[in-house]
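thought: user wants a sequence for this fold. calling inverse folding tool.
action: design(structure=
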């Protein structure tokens, strides 16, 4: 089963999407800093989830394409951004981040909140980078985050969250090498007062940030750098402490 495809999408939308809302202004600063054209910039939000980041870009006048493989997540994004979808400023596509193509190239691509850690292996991550490369205009910017080992260890935990409309139980394990699993079980209250149960399992992979940067540098990307979480326009020296590392890369001019 594809993760995020159950009613967990509703809980994600309500309770887990704050990350995207908080990070969106930082990503926008980075893009604005880089955008030298007077045309409206086009952003690809890869693994867009329920569309919080996309909505922020749209409110700021950007055009947005969102891609996600979960229809349940896309449905939330479509509902959130419906005025922009209707006006033609936004579109959302169901596709695999490792294997997609766009009709029109974009100025920027962002993939946020551990989305790329969900790819099953390194080969898939490299295929994703190639797809983003093809989707971007020359000199277009790509920014994404990856979990550090410290961040992966955060999955070694059990939690129970209870809200009036739902209860969520998460149980995770990390092997301290490259793989973490999390079982998510939930109960969502229906209109008739009864609860619907769902269950799904997510797997995340740890990717070595140095290998990732080397791969990008060897495949036509330039100015590849780590960025400070608090200010993505500022380079970081080495992998910063914390649960995530941010990587920024500019697409080279070759096609
Ligand atoms: C943790 S959520 C992040 C969502 C969003 N970027 C945010 O910041 O809230 C991960 C998202 O990645 C999507 N995803 C995972 N693997 C994917 C793949 N191979 N292709 C497309 N989407 C994928 C999931 O469906 C989910 O919506």
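)
observation: tool returned 255 residues.
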């Amino acid at each position: 089963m594809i993760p995020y495809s159950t009613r967990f999408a509703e809980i994600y939308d309500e309770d887990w999407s704050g990350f995207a809302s908080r990070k969106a202004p930082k990503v926008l600063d980075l893009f604005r800093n880089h955008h030298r054209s007077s045309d409206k910039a086009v952003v690809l939000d890869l693994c867009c989830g329920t569309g919080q980041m996309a909505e922020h870009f749209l409110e700021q006048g950007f055009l947005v394409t969102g891609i996600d493989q979960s229809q349940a997540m896309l449905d939330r994004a479509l509902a959130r951004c419906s005025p922009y979808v209707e006006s033609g400023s936004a579109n959302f596509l169901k596709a695999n981040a490792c294997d997609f193509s766009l009709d029109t190239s974009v100025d920027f691509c962002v993939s946020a909140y551990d989305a790329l850690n969900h790819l099953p292996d390194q080969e898939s991550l490299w295929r994703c980078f190639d797809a983003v490369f093809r989707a971007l205009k020359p000199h277009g910017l790509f920014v994404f985050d990856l979990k550090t080992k410290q961040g992966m260890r955060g999955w070694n935990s059990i939690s129970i969250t209870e809200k009036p409309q739902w209860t969520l139980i998460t149980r995770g394990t990390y092997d301290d090498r490259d793989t973490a699993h999390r079982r998510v079980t939930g109960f969502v209250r229906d209109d008739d007062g009864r609860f619907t149960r769902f269950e799904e399992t997510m797997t995340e992979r740890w990717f070595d940030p140095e290998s990732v940067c080397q791969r990008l540098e060897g495949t036509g990307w330039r100015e590849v750098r780590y960025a400070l979480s608090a200010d993505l326009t500022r380079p970081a020296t080495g992998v910063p402490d914390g649960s995530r590392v941010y990587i920024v890369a500019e697409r080279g001019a070759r096609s």
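thought: summarizing for user.
answer: Here is the designed sequence. The pocket of S-adenosylmethionine is lined by residues 4, 17, 19-20, 47-49, 52-53, 68-70, 73, 96-98, 112-115, 118-119 (CB under 6 Å).
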